[in-house]
Amino acid sequence: TMIASGKVEDRMERGQAVELEANWDDDDGYYVFKHNDVIDDRFQVISTLGRGVFSSVFKAVDVRDGKDRREVAIKIIRANNMMEHTGMKELSVLQDLNQEDPEDRRHIVRLFESFRFRGHLCIVLEVVGNLNLRKVIAKYGDGRGLAFKAVRSYTKQILTALRHMHKLGMVHADLKPDNMVISQELKLLKVCDMGSVHRKHELSELDETRYLVSRYYRAPEIVLGLTKKDCPLDIWSAGCAFIEMYTGKILFTGETNNDILKSHIEVCGKVPRRLQRQGIFTGEHFDSDGVFLHNELTDKVTRKRTQRSMPNLTQTREIYPLLLRPHGKHGTKTDAKLREDLSHFANLVGRALTMDPKKRITAEDALKHRVLC
């Protein structure tokens, strides 16, 4: 009877284990954090840092780390085959980026280790700080953007990270302020979230996607459907972030790709006919004469859109005047030195936001621009 009851207890324990396992995840496959959770008998969870499409991110301390109890960020990938594949890809990308930067000077977040826990791939990363660039702009920009000194420093750091990635044949493909983390003292910026990274040999997979990169940071070659996408699409996203840091406002807005392209034209000028001819989605945005067709929202209740031809659509918002608007705590007047700096900065932003990806500045050349030297 002792053996029999042991088997029953065994079965009960197994049953409880199955029940517990079912409670570890929510319906969407995200790991559910419980207060004082200890992951892998080692990492004590302190707080939730965020949740994205592919994972949840928790802040934890390494309780095996003696007195130091190092803080880490643990990215727990959703329990789902597609997400798992993306997580493995991100792990491989981070390993390569870190390996080629042994002195940690290229402004890419550091990978510590990875392991499996309760059916999830877990990626352990450094904690750079608690705020991403979007939150820093909101918190310290006072609705009008950051001081130029900070903007110049962050611009340089973003470009350093991109130069490193591009030299290794990688395209980030989702660069935006949310994917840049800032240190507590606001000096150090690192690029993170490598879940969308494509290596050069994988770029042909992107030929028919309209929705690569978050919409406000999406380059015109993605919207138009140009084939042979490459590193310039990151430079476009970076250019959007550069100006947003200083003005405190998102540069290109709209609900659809068509709205975004209209916004691109208003700031950067007309789309060259050569690019129009190369795009597989061009017919959604231009007629056969190259005139822009705007699918305008005509009924806010039904969300109905009506196509309107816009033959006179042209550049109406230039970058330099946008930078000269009243700015934060610096009052309405901009001193001569700052005006000169902003003029050079506008030139850099303009070269990053060049419609033709082949003519867009590279990260390597941007770092040599006089505004950053």
UniProtKB/TrEMBL annotation:
A Pfam family the protein falls into? Pkinase
Q: Which UniProt keywords apply?
A: ATP-binding, Kinase, Nucleotide-binding, Serine/threonine-protein kinase, Transferase
Binding positions (ATP): K75
At the top level, the lineage of the source is Eukaryota
Under SMART domains, the record lists: S_TKc
Tell me which InterPro entries the record gives: Kinase-like_dom_sf, Prot_kinase_dom, Protein_kinase_ATP_BS, Ser/Thr_kinase_AS, Ser_Thr_dual-spec_kinase
Domain Protein kinase intervals? 43-372
Q: Which GO terms describe its molecular function?
A: ATP binding; protein serine/threonine kinase activity
**Family listed:** Belongs to the protein kinase superfamily.
What is this protein called in UniProt?
Protein kinase domain-containing protein
Organism annotation = Octactis speculum
